[in-house]
Amino acid sequence: MIVAGVTADYGLGLGIAKLLGARYCRFYSKIFSDGESYLRLDEKVKGEDILLVQSMDMLQDKRFTEMLLAVDAAIEAHANEIYGLVPYLAYARQDRVFLEGEPVSSRAILNALSSAGMSKLAVIEPHKKEELSYFKGKSLAIEVIYSIASEAAKKTSADTLVAPDSGAMPRVSAIAEKLGMDWDYIEKKRSREDGSLSIARGLSDMANSKVLIVDDMISTGGTIVMAAKEALSKGASRVDAAASHLILANGAYGRIKDAGVGNIYGSNCTSNNSCEIIDVSGAVAEALSGFLVD
Predict the structure, then answer these.
(1) Which of 126, 151, 160, 238 matches a 20 to 30 Å C-alpha distance to 171?
(2) 18 catalytic residue (yes or no)
(3) CATH code, residues 2-144+281-291
(4) Are 71 and 52 in contact (CB under 8 A)?
(5) Block means of pLDDT (10 residues each) for the chain, length 294 residues?
(6) Global pTM value
(7) Catalytic residue among 62, 138, 155, 188
């Protein structure tokens, strides 16, 4: 099998290839003067299975289009089976219609990938596992948050995990149980008047605790900021944060640091050089090993 990084695989593809004993290559890419992408697959792949690795965390429209082009390039190069690994899937939050006239964007994206010629698709920590049913071939949701949280807890000597909202509570409690750590959670409420967030259920006493806030994604950072301030107000001596996907949009990194968070840990599923990156190639390769040969 060949593992091919498209334009945004952040080293994950190479790590997976080494662990799976596969050849690794990268697409040659450039941007035309009008902004369109150009891709070329220089590796000989005729008769070979190929795994295309492409994250969609930045320049989402372009990264998605490049993935479609990569599939077509693999078809033209006469690859046998074409598989996809998407470390971060864009447009996944719109998984149903909230207001009349809206698209189901996750369905549109996943339908397009399967219609392009991809037979299997693995997505790391999708917004909801259920939405992968929109992909017409075989699909797999890969979880990496345990690897990230356990490594971050070691590095920070954390003794307490915190879920920043009730939605993260089941995963955080399960991780804490595996690691033999204490844990707690926050419940948020949103104002009907202005949409602002506040705390409905706060943390218990955190005196002298070293806290690690764990979530699936950090986007604008509002949830992490709220949780960090709550932990520090309850006596925590240190607060760090960890998430599978670090988007950190619109100055989120600065806001989180200003709130008293020490380090922000994430994975090589997204691009963020300002944070502490934990390689999740091992967890991903382990999940893929059975999926790709099944």
Answers:
(1) 238
(2) no
(3) 3.40.50.2020
(4) yes
(5) 97 97 97 97 96 96 98 98 97 88 95 97 94 96 97 97 93 96 91 75 94 96 95 97 95 96 97 92 96 87
(6) 0.93
(7) 188
